[in-house]
Specification:
Elements: H1 35-38, H2 74-80, E1 89-91, E2 99-108, E3 111-121, H3 125-137, E4 143-144, E5 151-161, E6 164-175, E7 178-188, H4 197-219
Antiparallel strand pairs: 1-2, 2-3, 3-7, 4-5, 5-6, 6-7
């Protein structure tokens, strides 16, 4: 067999997630026990102004990112990335409670595949929705994926470098205060062609469905 060129540098292209910090409101003092205060009727705070400080903590559906390398079944990994080890490799993260990513990649014969599964947990549903909208707004040529999370968007692009084609799919879905991001791509180093758009898109959706299920099973 002739020697193969090294695979393209297909690395995860996921932007790091900024950690959203929240500041709690504290009561400034205890009750006034002066005689003047005793004669006063306590103010009605039933209808507080919308601008009044909130004292209730935000309830998060997901408190931490689940173990990404355990999010896919072994048979799913081997079907999407032939030749890859089922356990995958977790990418180092500065804060594993906020963001965790697992990668699988392998060259079997002349076919190369790369798959990333990433979980990003934010402080609120609103923060996750804002990030989702910002990160999908600039993507062209894709479309919504119905029935996946609260919202999902998938796009597949073809790139060519030195006459070698690579087709990559990116799928992002929001589930409450969490984002699940799938990156799936492939190349054929014999024909120099890429897998079809349908193959890459269906593979990304399959991985996303299992990752969302893992998130919902309380791994976070």
């Amino acid at each position: 067999m002739r020697s193969l060129p090294l695979p393209l540098a297909l690395t995860a292209r996921l932007a790091p997630v900024a950690v959203l910090a929240t500041a709690g409101w504290a009561l400034s003092s205890g009750p006034d026990t002066s005689s003047a205060a005793k004669d006063k009727t306590p103010p009605d705070t039933t209808n507080r102004s919308a601008s009044a400080p909130a004292t209730e903590a935000v309830t998060k559906t997901y408190a931490a990112a689940p173990a990404p390398c355990e999010s896919l079944a072994g048979k799913t990994v081997t079907s999407l990335v032939p030749g890859a080890k089922a356990e995958g490799k977790e990418i180092p993260s500065t804060d594993t409670e906020v963001r965790r990513t697992c990668s699988w990649n392998a060259l079997k014969g002349y076919d190369y595949r790369w798959l990333d599964v990433s979980f990003e947990v934010m402080e609120s549903d609103e923060a996750a929705q804002k990030s989702y909208e910002e990160r999908t707004a600039g993507k062209a040529g894709g479309g919504a994926v119905p029935g996946l999370g609260d919202a999902a968007y998938s796009v597949v692009n073809l790139t060519t470098e030195d006459k070698q084609e690579t087709r990559e799919g990116t799928l992002m879905t929001r589930v409450a205060n969490a984002l699940v991001v799938i990156t799936y791509n492939g190349s054929d180093f014999e024909t120099r062609k890429a897998p079809s758009t349908d193959e890459i898109n269906k593979g990304a959706i399959k991985a996303a469905k299992e990752a969302v299920e893992a998130l919902g099973n309380g791994q976070g």
